Amino acid sequence: MQRGSYAPPPAHSPPLHHPVPQHVSTVPMMRSPPPPQSQSNSNYGNPYANQNVTGGTTFAPAFGGFMNDPTAQMGYQLGKTALNTSQEYMGRNLNRYVSIPALKHYFNVTTPYVLRKLLLVLFPWRHRPWSREQRPSHQASSSDPSANASYHFLPPREDLNSPDMYIPVMAFVTYILLSTLLAGLRGQFHPEVMGLTATTAFLVVLLEILGLKFGTYVLSVNNDSQLLDLVAYSGYKFVGVIVTLVVSETLNQGAGTGGWAGWTVFTYTFMANAFFLLRSLKYVLLPDSSSSTPAGSGMHTVARSQRNRRTQFLFIYSYIVQFIFMCILSRQDGSPTQAKTATAAAAAAAGKLGST
Fold first, then answer.
1. Long-range contacts made by residues 302-306, C-beta under 8 angstroms, separation at least 24?
2. Strand partners, 53
3. Pairwise CA distance, residues 122 & 239, whole Å
4. What is the predicted pLDDT for the residue at 53?
5. Percentage of the residues of the chain whose pLDDT score is greater than 90
6. Helix, coil or strand: residue 223
């Protein structure tokens, strides 16, 4: 069998065609890690590296650069301007009625002063002297120091006889809280107790200040810090009222301020407060007529007839008015019968709950 002869190969062979993949591969391309860089480029791969820094604080991307937004900055500036304007407005209107620097003078106290002042209010019998200390604030002439000198009273922290407002304000708040607490211990608490007690105390102080202001106006008493002094002195009665409530409640075993124990404590605290006011208010109503009074202190002598009327007014205020107001403030409606009734009702209610 003979094989057929093959055709000779062509002079040029056709080009080869490689197969093209029909599906795109999802295998991620692997790359080698980047080479190590210097410390200046150490923020590679940090998503917070390109965030803006404001005031030394880096904000997270979740804020979206809110603080760097011009609208947010404009709103912040408007709010700050409105706050400053309102503060200036309140300061101007408040200064029309009360001088803030003068008010700060009455709160310039220390802990030793507060303790000594409380002892003075409760035990004023042997205290000497009662006159307030003064200091020259402006010296106009060096040749004659006493002729053109302007004097001012020392703050409470430097003068024990100087009136303050720290003790009256704290005693006012303590009286309201203490009265509410004692009413709760006696089983007589209701939501209106605190409001009624605060209203009564505020009306007593307001009536006392108005009466003092009217009396000083009729008697032609002039003093630069007169109103604030009267407000301070009108609040010292709360110290005696608090002592009366605590001691009476302890001795009477929850029966209130009645009985011989309550009236005994009340009589002592009333007499101590009256004596304290009689001596302390003397520099306001009865200025010293001695030659040792500084010329520029603003304390002038008065005629004998005017002095007698002021003495009578001071006696009526220190004893009669204080007796009425301290009776109103220290009156506590507590009796053993009411306490036993409340206790029996609570026991009966507890028994019913236990039986059910």
1. 306/219, 306/220
2. 58
3. 8
4. 46
5. 24
6. coil
Return the CA Rg of the chain: 42
Separation between Cα atoms, residue 277 and residue 293, nearest integer Å: 21
Give the DSSP H or E segment for 62: none
For residue 150, give the amino acid letter.
Answer: S
Structure letter (DSSP) for residue 131: S
- Best CA proximity match to 295, nearest among 137, 133, 148: 148
Residue written as token pair 């409001």:
195
* 264-307 pLDDT tens trace: 999 999 999 999 999 988 776 776 544 344 544 445 556 777 78
What are the angstrom distances between the C-alpha of 244 and each of 251, 323, 330?
A: 11, 13, 7
The model's pLDDT over 83-138, given as tens digits with 9 standing for 90+, comes to 888 777 776 666 666 677 778 889 999 999 999 999 999 999 989 888 888 888 66
Cα(80)–Cα(72) distance, rounded to whole angstroms?
A: 12
